[in-house]
Every structure is written in structure tokens, then in C-alpha cells.
Write a structure and sequence with these properties.
- It is a single chain.
- The chain has about 290 residues and is of the alpha/beta class.
- Helix content is about 35%, strand content about 30%.
- It contains 10 helices and 14 strands.
- Strands 6-7-8-3-9-10 form a 6-stranded mixed beta sheet, sandwiched between helices. Strands 2-1-4-5 form a 4-stranded antiparallel beta sheet.
- Helix 4 runs antiparallel to helix 5.
- The structure holds adenosine-5'-diphosphate (ADP).
């Protein structure tokens, strides 16, 4: 079992902006969803974990090794899966993996060959080993991304919005692959997509403004909202009135009526009770942003 232990982590950029504020998290094998809107601080936290930037204060341990004192330790054990790789060189998938494997320090040629073959097989790209990656579809490129992230048998994989730009079928296939992998390693999925977290992650945290607003098991967090979510269709002009009286967590225009969803511990007689969903957990957490 791998363990990433983050304690009271703070990061202030040289311009004085504090992007990570007192974050503490314990992450073990499986998929961990880091959910937050754009600008919440997800990349800042990820970059600090992988040692691309030094925290201003706090501690980071991976399998009991102090990552601030030994930043190379995480690099050796890390697979990174970015949103996209930008431009691909005009070489085949196999050759590109070979190149990356060498960069990752897999010096033994027969080991390299075995690993590349088995990874191409794992991500269902064996039939495309000789094709150039830039000719691949979005889903194939992302699966190729998984193969390169897995080279060198990492113990922790960081995936930054990996399903951006994939169609629903490709997204499903890709998500299944990620969750298979996460049996043996930590996969941190950084995303603003509530649905991906709901479908894949056993643990999650909502982040905004550099702070963790809520964390836990998605199912449990949903249960905590039972009998606390209410909805109602109102007239647009009434919104101000309702906003001042209720904690509105989301609003949606349905035809001409405004549909509001409200958080309330007390029963709201003239509202309809709603079965809570992870998106309610997310929106309710965001309203708690200090
Ligand atoms: P996310 O990944 O959740 O979209 P980021 O971590 O990229 O969020 O950004 C969080 C905040 O930190 C944003 O307000 C962003 O403008 C700011 N930020 C990111 N990088 C830097 C930097 N190098 N210097 C100063 N501010 C930064």
C-alpha cells in the first residue's frame, strides 16, 4: 500500500499570491478526486506534490520519505498524465515510448521492450505500435498517455483533467482503464467534472481558493445531504428575495422559469425535496468558500 501524506501545506508565489492554504490530506491506493473550479489551486497543489515547486511551509511524505528533503524520490515513482502533450514528434508510438523509457532511466533494452509491449497491450494499442501518435484519435492519444505514464512502474499517477476533449465513449473507456490501474497505485484525478469523480473515485476533496472545503468518500458526503436539498421554480424577479432568505446552491433556467436548488437543514414546506447528488455536495461546498 502506498501513502501520500500532506500536512499543513502552504504555497505563496513570488508575486505574493497564496495559491495553497494550509492543506492536509492522506491519500492511499485507489482513485482520489481533487475537484474544484478553474483557478481553485489544483495545479499549484499537484506541482508542489511532484516537486516542481517548493512549498512555503508544511510537510509532504510519500511512503514515509520526506519529499521536501528528497524531491527526487517522488520523481522516480511518478507517472504524469497531462491534459494534452501538445505537439508529437513524427515517430511511431513504439519509438516514442522507447524514447520516454530511456529518459525515465530504464536502461536495460530487453526490459524496456517487454514493458513497452505489455503497456501497449494494456491500453489496447498493440495494433497501432507502428503508427505515429499525431495521427491517433483523442481517445487513443489519451490511452497512449496512460502507457507513457506507466513506464517505469510508478507508484503514484497524477492525471490533470485527462478526459478533456474526449467523446463520451472514449471517456468511458479511458476512465475504466484508469480505475483498473488504481488498484495498485495512487491515482490523483484533478478535475472540474463532478461526474468523473462520482464514477471513479473512492475518496475526494473539494478545493477552492487554495483551501480544502470538504473531503471524504463521495457516497458518504452525499448521504450527509439527505433531507437537506430542496428545489423550487420561481419567477426571475423573485430571485433577490429568495437569495436573501435561503442558501441557494445552484440555479438553472428551465424554459422561462428559474429553477433554484437550496440547502436547508429545516424542512421547507413550499419546496420539493430532492435526492442529493455529488453535484449538490460540490455546489454546497463551494458556497462555504471563505
Ligand atoms: P487550477 O489548477 O485549479 O485551475 P491553479 O493552481 O492553476 O488552479 O491556479 C490557482 C491560482 O494561482 C490562480 O489564481 C492562478 O492565477 C494563481 N497562479 C498560478 N500560477 C501562478 C504563478 N506562477 N504566480 C502567481 N500566481 C499563480
Amino acid at each position: 500500500m502506498n501513502a501520500l501524506s500532506i500536512n499543513n501545506l502552504n504555497l505563496t508565489y513570488p508575486n505574493g499570491f497564496q495559491a495553497v492554504k494550509d492543506i492536509s490530506l492522506e491519500i492511499t491506493n485507489g482513485m482520489f478526486g481533487l475537484l474544484g473550479p478553474n483557478g481553485a489551486g489544483k495545479s499549484s497543489l499537484m506541482k508542489t506534490i511532484v516537486g516542481l515547486q517548493k512549498p512555503t511551509s508544511g510537510t509532504l511524505f510519500f511512503n514515509e520519505v520526506d519529499l521536501i528533503k528528497n524531491p527526487d524520490y517522488i520523481k522516480k515513482n511518478l507517472g504524469f498524465l497531462p491534459q494534452d502533450f501538445g505537439v508529437y514528434p513524427k515517430i511511431s508510438a513504439y519509438d516514442l515510448l522507447e524514447h520516454i523509457a530511456i529518459l525515465k532511466g530504464i536502461t536495460n533494452a530487453s526490459q524496456r521492450k517487454d514493458q513497452i509491449r505489455s503497456l501497449l497491450d494494456k491500453v489496447n494499442l498493440s495494433g497501432f505500435a507502428k503508427k505515429e501518435v499525431h495521427t491517433f484519435s483523442g481517445g487513443m492519444k489519451q490511452r497512449f498517455g496512460v502507457a507513457q505514464a506507466l513506464l517505469g512502474n510508478p507508484k503514484i499517477i497524477i492525471a490533470d483533467e485527462p478526459t478533456a476533449g474526449l467523446d463520451p465513449e472514449e471517456r468511458n473507456r479511458f476512465n475504466t482503464l484508469l480505475s483498473e490501474i488504481s488498484r495498485d497505485v495512487i491515482v490523483i484525478l484533478s478535475t472540474h467534472l463532478v461526474e468523473d469523480v462520482r464514477n471513479l473515485c473512492s475518496e475526494m476533496a473539494v478545493i477552492n481558493n487554495g483551501q480544502i472545503l470538504r473531503k471524504g468518500n463521495p457516497g458518504k458526503l452525499i448521504t450527509e445531504l439527505e433531507q437537506k436539498i430542496w428545489s423550487k421554480s420561481i419567477d426571475k424577479q423573485e430571485l433577490e428575495n429568495y437569495s436573501s432568505r435561503y442558501e441557494i446552491i445552484s440555479r438553472q433556467l428551465v424554459e422561462r422559469a428559474l429553477h433554484i436548488t437550496v440547502f436547508s437543514e429545516e424542512t421547507l414546506q413550499d419546496f420539493t425535496p430532492v435526492n442529493p447528488l455529488l453535484e449538490h455536495v460540490y455546489f454546497h461546498s463551494l458556497t462555504q468558500t471563505p
